[in-house]
């Protein structure tokens, strides 16, 4: 995820006239242009909406997935292990999103070292979240379409091994390119890991195109299995819910990550203007508001994953209901004990006071 935005400078119409471009193009640029203050206000408004609506859903939702599944770890299944790891990656991304979404004055990334550190941190968790979504799609296909053949392979030890390998792959997909590009660009004054074109190509390919293709393929095969079952035995209510959940999974992933990757792809397909310095070649330097919007969209995926993957699932809802009932019972018992203690302590105090008074 590219993380070094900058200010929007210059007047588009004047630049167009200076380059001898046609008048309609200049007018289009003029109508599309916003002042720096307007961009700041719009970005602040979107950040406030994200913080007030999506951030609580993502933070509380992912935290509940961790707490509830750990509370009932004796009932944990193979998908639950993937849910926990996905929730851990998403929780870190959601927590870090507060730093990103209010980075409106671009002060956080004036230092190249801070820009690189934040980019590394975000990419590890971004890759882990996307990789877990992809692997969970493949696991769902195996569980539904290849249950007899692959059922013995879907064990908890193998699931733990898969989770460890996914985390290793996420770290490797970030640190290996970082090491390579740092040796090549490390001495540049404005070097930021997120602005290297090779890293951006890798992010678009490995972080979106390949995962989306695998997710789409797995769920298309699952839909085919469900439709075939419907033709032979009729579509059961649970299978009908599964189809709705599949549609939600694909749509949420595609809608949230598409803007970010289109934004990067446009930048990658454009050539840097002649004479542009290394610090002014980022697309976010030219379009900070657009960069801010695509960042919010990408973070929204981690906020919506708990709703799609767990709260729409009957198993987690049952665990959550039981957890809330137990928590309410413990709270009621605690309140009863506290009230009983308050009822007993004053009596004891009064009795002791009476004894002291009689002795006096």
UniProtKB/TrEMBL annotation:
Primary location group: other
Pfam family, one: 7tm_1
Keyword hit for Transmembrane helix: yes
Bilayer topology annotation: Multi-pass membrane protein
Residues that span the membrane, as ranges: 40-69, 81-99, 111-138, 159-181, 201-226, 246-269, 289-312
Positions of the G-protein coupled receptors family 1 profile domain: 61-309
Single Gene Ontology MF annotation: steroid hormone binding
Residues of the signal peptide: none
NAD keyword on record: no
Gene3D superfamilies recorded: Rhodopsin 7-helix transmembrane proteins
Keywords: Apoptosis, Cell cycle, Cell membrane, Cell projection, Cytoplasm, Cytoplasmic vesicle, Cytoskeleton, Differentiation, Disulfide bond, Endoplasmic reticulum, Endosome, G-protein coupled receptor, Golgi apparatus, Membrane, Mitochondrion, Neurogenesis, Nucleus, Postsynaptic cell membrane, Receptor, Synapse, Transducer, Transmembrane, Transmembrane helix
GO terms under biological process: adenylate cyclase-activating G protein-coupled receptor signaling pathway; apoptotic process; cell differentiation; cellular response to estradiol stimulus; cellular response to glucose stimulus; cellular response to peptide hormone stimulus; cellular response to tumor necrosis factor; G protein-coupled receptor signaling pathway
Cellular localization per UniProt: Cell projection, Axon; Cell projection, Dendrite; Cell projection, Dendritic spine membrane; Cytoplasm, Cytoskeleton
GO CC annotation terms, alphabetical: axon; cytoplasmic vesicle membrane; cytosol; dendritic spine membrane; early endosome; endoplasmic reticulum membrane; Golgi apparatus; Golgi membrane
Matches recorded under PANTHER family: G-PROTEIN COUPLED ESTROGEN RECEPTOR 1 (PTHR24226:SF2), G-PROTEIN COUPLED RECEPTOR 182 AND ESTROGEN RECEPTOR 1 (PTHR24226)
Family recorded in the similarity comment: Belongs to the G-protein coupled receptor 1 family.
Name of the protein in question: G-protein coupled estrogen receptor 1
């Amino acid at each position: 995820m590219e993380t070094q935005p900058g200010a929007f400078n210059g007047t588009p119409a004047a630049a167009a006239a200076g380059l001898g471009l046609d008048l309609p193009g200049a007018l289009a640029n003029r109508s599309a242009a916003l002042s720096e203050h307007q961009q700041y206000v719009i970005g602040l408004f979107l950040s406030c909406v994200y913080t007030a609506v999506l951030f609580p859903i993502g933070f509380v939702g992912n935290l509940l997935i961790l707490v509830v599944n750990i509370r009932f770890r004796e009932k944990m299944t193979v998908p639950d292990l993937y849910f926990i790891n996905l929730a851990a990656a998403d929780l870190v991304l959601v927590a870090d999103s507060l730093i990103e979404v209010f980075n409106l004055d671009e002060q956080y990334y004036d230092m190249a070292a801070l820009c690189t550190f934040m980019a590394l941190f975000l990419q590890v968790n971004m890759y882990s979240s996307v990789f877990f979504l992809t692997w969970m799609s493949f696991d769902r296909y195996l569980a539904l379409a290849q249950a007899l053949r692959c059922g013995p392979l879907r064990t908890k030890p193998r699931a733990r091994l898969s989770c460890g390998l996914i985390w290793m792959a996420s770290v490797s997909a970030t640190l290996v390119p970082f090491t390579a590009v740092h040796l090549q660009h490390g001495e540049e004054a404005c070097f930021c890991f997120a602005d290297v074109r090779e890293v951006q190509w890798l992010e678009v390919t490995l972080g979106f195109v390949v995962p989306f293709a695998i997710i789409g393929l797995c769920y298309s095969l699952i839909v085919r299995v469900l439709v075939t079952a419907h033709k032979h035995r009729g579509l059961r209510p649970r299978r009908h819910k599964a189809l709705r959940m599949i549609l939600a999974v694909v749509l949420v992933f595609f809608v949230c990550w598409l803007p970010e990757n289109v934004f990067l792809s446009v930048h990658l397909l454009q050539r840097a203007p002649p004479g542009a310095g290394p610090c002014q070649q980022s697309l976010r330097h030219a379009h900070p508001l657009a960069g801010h919007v695509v960042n919010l969209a990408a973070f929204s995926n981690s906020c919506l994953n708990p709703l799609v993957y767990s709260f729409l699932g009957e198993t987690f809802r049952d665990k959550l209901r039981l957890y809330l009932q137990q928590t309410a019972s413990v709270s009621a018992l605690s309140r009863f004990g506290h009230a009983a203690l308050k009822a007993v302590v004053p009596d004891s105090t009064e009795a002791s006071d009476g004894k002291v008074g009689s002795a006096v």
